[in-house]
Amino acid sequence: MAGHFRTQAPAASLPGQAFGRYPQFSGIMKPSRFEGEVQNLEVDGTIPHSIDGTFYRVMPDPQMVPFIEGDPWFNGDGNISAFRIHNGRCHFKQRYVRTEKFVRERQAQRALLGRYRNKYTDLVEFHVRSTANTNIFYFNGRLLACKEDSPAYAMDPVTLETIGLEDFCGQMPSLTFTAHPKLDPVTGELHCFGYEARGDGTPDVCYWTVSPDGQVKNVSWLVAPAVAMIHDFAVTDHWILFPLNCLTCDVERLKAGGEHWQWDPELPFYLGVMPRYGGNNSNVKWFQGPTAFPGHTANAHETADGNIVFDLAMAKDNIFVWWPDRDGNAPDPKSGACRTEMSRYTIDPRSKDLELPTPAVLGPDDCEFPRIDDRVSSKPHTTIFYLAMDPALDTNYQAIGHLVAGFAPYNAIGQLDVVTGGLAKYFPGRTHFVQEPVFIPRSKDASEGDGYVMAMVNNLSTMTSELHIVDTNDFTKAQAIIYLPMNLRIGLHGNWVDSQDLGLSKD
Ligand code: V55
Ligand code: FE
Asked: Binding site annotation covers 91?
């Protein structure tokens, strides 16, 4: 075993197995840790029979109490929730991804993995450190449970059993796989990338596609101008877009037991623009703008005159305040520095001038987690659904503020028409916070954005979770509310999969 691993934990760092004494594991952030199923969940309103499929979502949900002080939300074990909707009924199933971390910690009956993305702080040597906690994505008959530091874990979409690491028929070109792959709605191929693709602290970025039958194609390698977080990306007909965050990694800091990420206020915001076919270091362009925090991408497309239109959530300062700058400073989330806006860059990929234009702001909200109708991914889109933190809404902080403990949840879902600027909002209730929405088309040939939006909601007055369904034609009220008999922790990403795509009968 390599010498850099501690062979025993200092006794003082061994806490009891009680999450409740840590603020980040209390209130709304209390781990769920449940595995099992509940059939025929309670429903208010009616679930349209045309909605037939499964909503998958993942939450970081620590199995064991970490031995790292202040262990961030992003380091919990991936626990997958599946809501199967059929004949107006909803059946719930939840199961942890059997990652190497999960299996070995269960065996040892204690935490073994150390600091977020720092192998030098682990108690044992792991082959793969994935927590599989960021996205759950259906492709080619399998669910991919993703963490951007590792390959994905493949799971059975019906039983939620873990199959093993997904290496795409042994052709996986990169050590890492993004949590935000994009399914091409025209070709059916999966657009993939990894950053730190040759290991911790490497500036290498790898892009590839996987054909619908599982073959790796179109492998491109780039060296990025910084070892920076690339959490999400975007695809157009001819271009691949890589927004680099101003959070950077340094191997010496890792070896000293420090954090993977540090905010670098001197780094520009780099946006890599690479040809979709045959990208390399000589044809990628690294556009630059002022220091920024690029968040999740909504979509990108090309205009008739060959420009790229790219919509994503952007903040001016470091949203991940638990990874401060080199002086230990991070913005106060209440100061407005963390305000995140849906922003639109219009870029000429042929330009010799690599300075990014100032983006247009698409709406009035402090918002994140944009989603579109995935049938227009990489093509022009009209509607963006997103999570908003709207202080004008009537959230009862007096009643529930103590359960939020420093976490900044979202209190509404926005439905933004980016062509007209029209905006409707769904407010789930005064004691409710909402998680990433997904869009469900009304039918196979429904027009873009016509259908339903589904999202997990935490009701803090009952401390139970709910699944809300909203009709896009009547966005301010719920079509149906599905009730779980327990609270699920705040999650990250999820996706809707139609029963037909899962090979399940609709009868
Ligand atoms: C994100 C989430 C992560 C992570 C890196 O939302 C970036 C962004 C849940 O883990 O490891
Ligand atoms: Fe994400």
From this structure: no
Q: Residue 337: which pLDDT band, with cuts at 50, 70 and 90?
A: confident
State how far the Cα of 484 lies from the Cα of 91, in Å rounded to an integer: 10
pLDDT over 90 at 321, yes or no: yes
Sequence-distant (≥ 6) Cβ neighbours of residue 423 within 8 angstroms: 363, 364, 365, 414, 415, 416, 417
SS3 258: coil
DSSP class of 94: E
pLDDT of res. 506 = 76
Cβ < 6 A, ligand 1 pocket? 60, 74, 133-134, 148, 231, 492
pLDDT at res. 16: 65
Question: In this prediction, what percent of the chain has a pLDDT beyond 70?
Answer: 97
Q: Which-ligand-closest: CA of 60?
A: 1
**Chain centre distance of CA 423:** 24
CA–CA dist 343, 310 (Å, integer): 8
Q: What is the DSSP-derived secondary structure letter of residue 402?
A: G
Segment 127-137 mean pLDDT: 99
CATH number at residue 158: 2.120.10.30
Atom 10, ligand 1: residue with shortest CA distance: 74
Q: Are residues 438 and 375 in contact, defined by beta-carbon separation less than 8 angstroms?
A: no
Cα of 3 from ligand 2 centre, angstroms:
34
Residue 20 lies in a domain: yes
Kindly report each contact of residues 354-360 with a partner whose C-beta sits within 8 Å and lies 24 or more positions away, as own/partner: 354/285, 354/286, 354/287, 354/288, 355/287, 355/288, 355/289, 356/269, 356/271, 356/287, 356/288, 356/289, 358/289, 359/314
pLDDT at 7 over 80: no
In this prediction the pTM is: 0.96
Residue 493 assigned ligand-binding role: yes
Ligand 1 atom 9 nearest Cα:
74
Max distance between CA atoms of the chain, in angstroms, equals: 65
Interacting residues of 220 by C-beta distance below 8 A, sequence separation 6+ = 206, 207, 208, 240, 274, 278, 279, 280
- Measure CA 460 to chain center: 23
Tokens matching residue 267: 């780094």
DSSP secondary structure string for all residues of 297-347: EEEEEE-TTS-EEEEEEEESS-S-TTS-BTTS----GGGTTT-EEEEEEEE
CA of 147 to the centre of ligand 1 (A): 8
Structure tokens at 42: 């309670």
283 in any annotated domain: yes
Can you give the residue range of the structural domain that contains 58? 11-502
- 1: in domain: no
Residue 214 covered by a domain: yes
